[in-house]
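User: Teach me something about this protein's shape.
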Amino acid sequence: MSIERWKAYLSNIKTPRTSIYYSVRDTLSPSTIQTKITAIKSLLKYVNLMYDEGLDHKKVEQKRIKAPQVTVLSENEFKTLFESINLFEKYRINAIRSQLLVNLGYTS
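Assistant: First, the predicted structure itself:
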């Protein structure tokens, strides 16, 4: 089976009932299909390396999938979050720890 036919086959597979996306989408998502294609490319690369076969993983084309745009907190929302930590934490050391964790998570 060619890679293009396999991509078409994958795009028609129904979402498994055990998936958390079962009620959200009918078929496999483009990112799931992309992951499966990447796995095939990795297998071809491994076979080339270990067994010196003539399979070329570079010929398998993959389209880039755009990630959804992430919305971030505004500066005022971030300050409000910090102030609310001070209000709700009973001890100062806990407030400092919570602010550190929030700041670390936000900046990374």
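Now, about its shape. Residues 30-51 form the longest helix (22 residues). Residues 3-59 form one domain. If you'd like, I can walk through any region in more detail.
User: That's plenty for now, thanks!
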